Amino acid sequence: MNKPALLRVIIAELEADLRRQQAANQQASAGATDGEARAETKWDTCGLESSYLARGHALQFKALASDLEDLRTFMIPVFSGLPVGIGALIETELDKEKMICFLLPCAGGTEVSFEGQNVSVITPASPIGAALMDKKQGDRFSFRAGSIGKILSVL
User: Fold this and answer.
1) How many CB atoms are closer than 10 A to CB 14?
2) Can you give the residue ranges of every domain in the chain?
3) Counting Cβ atoms within 10 Å, is residue 66 exposed (0-12), middle (13-18) or buried (19+)?
4) Which of 20, 66, 94, 145 could form a disulfide with 149 if both were Cys (CB 3.0 to 4.6 A apart)?
């Protein structure tokens, strides 16, 4: 699997998420400042709630923009015969299901379809990322109570 091309697909997905986040922030901000949102009674909190929502969208936008910047400058290492680390593309079998994970420094939880396969982005801070760190092809790992997996390949 071509890791640089996969990283470009992940970046494109995050860019689309960033545009959606920005649109949601603009909509919430407009709702917070709209004349209709002004409180008519002390129990009317529509405008206040919209401002909280806009703030949350702004914080998510900032975090996503930071993740994008990190991934745009990320240099993908080669892991042929090396233990799993940041930048590794790992094919695993967990509870008899195959899964492909791309271990990146950020953007955990992002899922993309690439070359006809689903790829999940994980980070070292995630439970599965921590379980896979420093393991090699053929090693077993435990994840969740009672789940045992095997590393099929590391690229």
Assistant:
1) 22
2) 3-72, 89-154
3) exposed
4) 94
Six-digit token string for 113: 């379809």
The Cα-based distances of 53 to 2, 21, 24, 59 in angstroms read: 39, 11, 9, 10
DSSP secondary structure of the chain: --HHHHHHHHHHHHHHHHHHHHHHHHHHHHHHHSGGGS-SSTT--HHHHHHHHHHHHHHHHHHHHHHHHHHHTPPPPP-TTSPP-TT-EEEEEETTEEEEEEE-SS-TT-EEEETTEEEEEE-TTSHHHHHHTT--TT-EEE-STT-EEEEEEE-
CA atoms within 13 A on the CB side of 126: 18
Please give the model's pTM, rounded to 2 decimal places. 0.85
Look up the CATH number of domain 89-154. Answer: 3.10.50
